[in-house]
Fold this protein.
Amino acid sequence: MRGTQEFRNLLNERRPGHSLPRPFYTDPDIYALDVEAVFNACWLMIGFSAELPKPGSYLAMTIARTPIIVLRDRGGAIRGFFNSCRHRGAQICPDGSGRAAKLVCPYHQWTYDLEGRLQHAGQMPENFRADDHSLRPIHVEVVAGVIYICLGETPPDFAPFRRALEPMVKPYNFENAKLAHQYVLVEKANWKLVMENGRECYHCAANHPELGITFPVGITEKFGAEETVRAQNYCMRMAKHGLEVGPDDGSWWQIARFPLNEGMITMSPDGQPIVKKPMLDVDGGDVGSLRFAIEPHNFCHALGDFTFMFSIFPVGVEETHLIAKWLVHKDAVEGVDYDVPSLIKTWDMTNRQDRDLSENNQRGVNGLGYVPGPYSPTAEGFVLRFVNWYCEHMRAFAGVPSANIAEVA
Amino acid sequence: MRGTQEFRNLLNERRPGHSLPRPFYTDPDIYALDVEAVFNACWLMIGFSAELPKPGSYLAMTIARTPIIVLRDRGGAIRGFFNSCRHRGAQICPDGSGRAAKLVCPYHQWTYDLEGRLQHAGQMPENFRADDHSLRPIHVEVVAGVIYICLGETPPDFAPFRRALEPMVKPYNFENAKLAHQYVLVEKANWKLVMENGRECYHCAANHPELGITFPVGITEKFGAEETVRAQNYCMRMAKHGLEVGPDDGSWWQIARFPLNEGMITMSPDGQPIVKKPMLDVDGGDVGSLRFAIEPHNFCHALGDFTFMFSIFPVGVEETHLIAKWLVHKDAVEGVDYDVPSLIKTWDMTNRQDRDLSENNQRGVNGLGYVPGPYSPTAEGFVLRFVNWYCEHMRAFAGVPSANIAEVA
Amino acid sequence: MRGTQEFRNLLNERRPGHSLPRPFYTDPDIYALDVEAVFNACWLMIGFSAELPKPGSYLAMTIARTPIIVLRDRGGAIRGFFNSCRHRGAQICPDGSGRAAKLVCPYHQWTYDLEGRLQHAGQMPENFRADDHSLRPIHVEVVAGVIYICLGETPPDFAPFRRALEPMVKPYNFENAKLAHQYVLVEKANWKLVMENGRECYHCAANHPELGITFPVGITEKFGAEETVRAQNYCMRMAKHGLEVGPDDGSWWQIARFPLNEGMITMSPDGQPIVKKPMLDVDGGDVGSLRFAIEPHNFCHALGDFTFMFSIFPVGVEETHLIAKWLVHKDAVEGVDYDVPSLIKTWDMTNRQDRDLSENNQRGVNGLGYVPGPYSPTAEGFVLRFVNWYCEHMRAFAGVPSANIAEVA
């Protein structure tokens, strides 16, 4: 329906400052466009280079319906490929992580090296050209240990984001980190509802008692810190350690460092560090949180002692999978320096509360009674930003002129 | 597909006196039209005012995909609203029943009074007008304690039905009743097959041994009672008590009182009363059954000692939910005056048998071998009436001239 | 979408010698065409006359969405009908096998004789004509005890296949066999991926250790036996017993007898007979395997001591049901002459391994990274043949001229 008048009308129907017309949250045809225009074309954050410690280490996952594999090649570089054999298309590596010297398709044992070149294909005729049957690569960018991929042929310009993110993230030393925990949470809600939920804290005070202990739930869109004396002190203290505060942003990304609640050092049940071996060893880990986020699907919070990653992947018009990961220093010993239940508690509770809220939002939006409502310009600035980004992105995709909505800054 | 030639052709393909062409039972696009034209536009019977005993008592449920809430306001009137917050559309009250002083959306705590007015919305700007963000009302009519709703903007004329139903139902004193039991039964069949099943007793003798003990399974469309001496005696006896027999009907409703099988007083396993405290205290409860029913989805049987309600709600092209409720006098004490297993047995068995029949009907209709077959004019008059009503309703919706099918009276 | 340009383009997009473009494996609209053009129109193999031992014995099953019934009539002939009542379409016999003197619809007891004539329909008016409401027949052909059906009005010419198959199958005496075991295996893969899997042994060496003990997994498309001295000996030995070797084929069928691995007599865990009472009592059962197969969905292996049947039926675009049956001599006594776990082990393991491979193939084909790849002309000749047959069949169905692909012989 990409070029249809119906879709153009829907895009034009959207009222500035308001949530989207119902079909954007419920229509399978628009979902298909979302996958094509957004998840098959934008940069996505999928994990950390620390998850690929050695040549042959790989991470296989499915983006919407597309299986991909990201691996460390023999030279140590991180590469990505579509995870479909060039013979009959079978998935080569099962989703998950592992290590392999070569990529061998389980179906007919077509074998690829870690650079994606076909090395073996049995019983093929003389005129078969292995060179024409390499694995198809995907775009990969690694920024100070954070892995971004893009399935599209012509990815959006990555350089400005890299320039902004690299110095902010570098002090956390992600290359020397390890994955402490990860899971997939199934949410029966459209991916945009899940993202709208994840882009504001207007709902936090009433719904996230655990998060609210440490997270400044009254925070507004800027995640800035210029308003209070405490914030000024935080900025000065960070500057002393050479840590920029920001905020910095682009059309599809935002980066900012901000202080937690008074007296709170990390996002733990009591605000005190839960990993003895810190990632960023400054002021006893009292460095607030570095939030870095990209549209359409991700945010991370890097704290003194651990980093939390939140990336969502759509599975259907009303089903979304959240991949959550927790990263700690690679020398932190589980059971000695940290325990997983404590490490994940704050965000795990928050994730599940948000899942319930998003699913409930979906149920309400499904109804005849739903009409798009107004976002709070102060409390939902990041939501507005996400929704505006989405609408502009889809307008461009559908060939509809920009709506020229001033972004809420 | 509402205005398409394909749909017009399908409507014209229907052969008078016969079941519908296959796509009406299997096509997801026609299902979507059914929801729009029928369930989002017609009067629906959802329950009893006795379920809303006090101001703030509410009943929340989902009609197809639309969550609604029906409640008793501070003045004691029964009102209905779409159960979607005017902010971002979240469902306000979870499906089920309860009581609340105000309606508070769980997402961002937008708060509405029992009349639907927005009373609180945090962090909204100066120019935000709460008056523009009241809950959207739905139409509600209460007839002697029976609640009807309509989601459409312009409901069908309700007055004639009210005039006919009110005097028939009033003697049962539904306002002084209470809900003794309710459940939802999932049926994997198109809602029209479920209704066709519920509109005839041609299948009863062989399939409903429990119901057949008390229910006159040979009954024909009229549910009338003019044919036999026993029926004449019944009419005279009812007249003596001021109870009209009918039948009365309109294009989308039917009302009639009729006698049960010889010697049977109520629809119980042995035909004897199972609730000691009667709803209609006349002749020891020996008043037959008052059947009142509306297209597209409901029938009730009011007996001397209890009332059974059957309302179906479509969930998908091949999935329908039956909501069954049993009402008794509010002073009847469970475990003393009645027990639930005995109370529900006859209709519960019947519901489950009908579910199996409808699902089996769906399987057969799905096949290439299905061709619409003829209804028995005597034994399936009410089915014919339902199907004719449906076809005429859809013709009007699609802008196709009436087929002028004479209704079987 | 049958006549659409989109479908024509897709058909023309197919590259000779290569697997199909993605939508053929994933698109619900193409799946609907497959059902219409293939499963509702081609000959299908559903079982054996031995499953219908007496008049009234029936076998009911569902082909895609169409319930059918095949039975032995009073005269002993095997007939087939659509299993939908001519009244309101209910399924008459539940799927499975059984025996009945008459076919009585469970809904309203419309009753048909074993020849499909309506004998009873209660409460129908004077002018109702039972003769107009016989069960609708389907085409049935029985070849030496093997049952083929066709749901289409004008089946493909069956005579050449019968002429070829009858003498090859007759010696196995299927009329004197019995069903020893059967099951349905659910595979979450498009039916064509399941068939491509079932038409080659390129994947066998690495994936079917159990099958590989006895089955010549290096076998090529011909299933011929002319190449080796051992094969020549096999041919001479079979000729001595009057057993033709073939191969023989038509556009939609293939028949050939071939030797198993050296020293192996049947497809059992150790290659030795597992049924003491043989079906074909020649050379101690050492007769290799008779493979007979039809497009779109079936193959059988008739061995000296048992016969294995593999027929698939599509259920959805990414779901296929495999019906597997094992036939033995009717006088073989379970627990004495054979035990089921040993009998089914080789093919049961193989079926489950193939299910996993097909589902994995589906996951890979779903992805953006999939591009149709080249089949091995030697190892995947039968796959190519199946895919070419499918493409030609769909071209004819869609009114697209033949691609004139030379069949791999």
